[in-house]
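Onboarding guide, step 5: your first structure request.
Type a short instruction followed by the sequence, for example:

Predict the 3D structure of this protein.
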Amino acid sequence: MEVGVETGSPHMITAAMPGKVAPFKASQWPELVVQSAGLMNDNHVYPACTFIVGLPQETEDDVQRTIDLIDDLWDFKALLVPMFFVPLGHLKSRDWFRRDRLSPLQEELLKRALTHGLRQSKVMLNDFFDWEGRHTEIYRGAFRGFIGFLEVISKMHGLWSPAKHPGRAIVDPNRTPEHLPVPTIPVRE
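The system replies with structure tokens like these:
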């Protein structure tokens, strides 16, 4: 399942996507993402979470908050997919984000997402190849070898970046309906 997380920054959610979190507050966005990923994992759904790098008006603090969100998702089974900003919708008059504009912190975000993806790909192999038979072990072994090869290459080229703080627990006692963020606007009946 593809989930457009876009950013870990409440500031950027407010500036670029004000309606995205409705009926919640923008300040609740990072927690909402973590709880949603947890609910999906609880039900054996592994999301592909996309993040936008280079949003107009993005600051280093916004990028750091997105990295912090990636770290919070560190132990969740998910693929985190960063993408460069493409001008669409109400932002269509803005310039495309290009690789030559990457800041060191944005590069760190890309490295962190790559590291998370390789790490979680190994974990998810058993879930994707869960049928019995000799061919299953061959498939798992081939994919595990390929992922290991990519890990070695990423480490050789300085692209490996583990989380700086431990991720959130998979089994979160707060992930029950009564503990989820509460909508901030009244719901019509």
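Each response can be followed by summary notes, for example: Residues 2-179 form a domain with the Transcription Regulator spoIIAA fold (CATH 3.30.750.200).
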